[in-house]
């Protein structure tokens, strides 16, 4: 009776181990098959991030220029 339980336990653990090995192989195969698409997507995200940062720094420069112009206009109005 105990030998049957041990045999059932070992068989169950073996099935789980084989399932996990097959799952790992399937995930590795999927990663290998989609590698090119993933690289293209990462490049697109990097380009988008660079464009967003460039736009943000441009907006900062535009805001500084706009602030300087408004300040000069106020100063000229008050001086006159």
List the helices and strands and how they pair.
Blueprint: H1 2-33, H2 35-79
Q: Radius of gyration, Cα only, in angstroms?
A: 32 Å
How many structurally independent domains? 2
The secondary-structure element order is: HH
**Biggest β-sheet strands, sense, barrel:** none
Number of strands: 0
Describe this structure in a few short sentences:
This protein has 80 residues and is an all-alpha fold. It has helices spanning 2-33, 35-79.
List keywords for this structure.
80 residues; 96% helix; single chain; rod-shaped; mainly alpha
Describe this structure in words.
The protein has 80 residues and is mainly α. The chain has two domains: 1-33; 41-80. It contains two helices and no strands. The protein has helices at 2-33, 35-79. The longest helix is centred in the last third of the chain and has 45 residues, at 35-79. The protein starts with a helix and ends with a helix. The model has no long low-confidence stretch (mean pLDDT 88).
């Amino acid at each position: 009776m105990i030998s049957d339980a041990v045999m059932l336990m070992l068989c169950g653990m073996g099935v789980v181990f084989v399932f996990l090995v097959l799952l790992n192989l399937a995930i590795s195969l999927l990663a290998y098959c989609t590698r090119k698409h993933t690289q293209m997507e990462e490049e697109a995200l990097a380009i988008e991030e660079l464009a967003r940062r460039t736009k943000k720094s441009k907006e900062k420069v535009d805001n500084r220029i706009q602030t300087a112009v408004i300040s000069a206009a106020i100063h000229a109005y008050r001086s006159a």
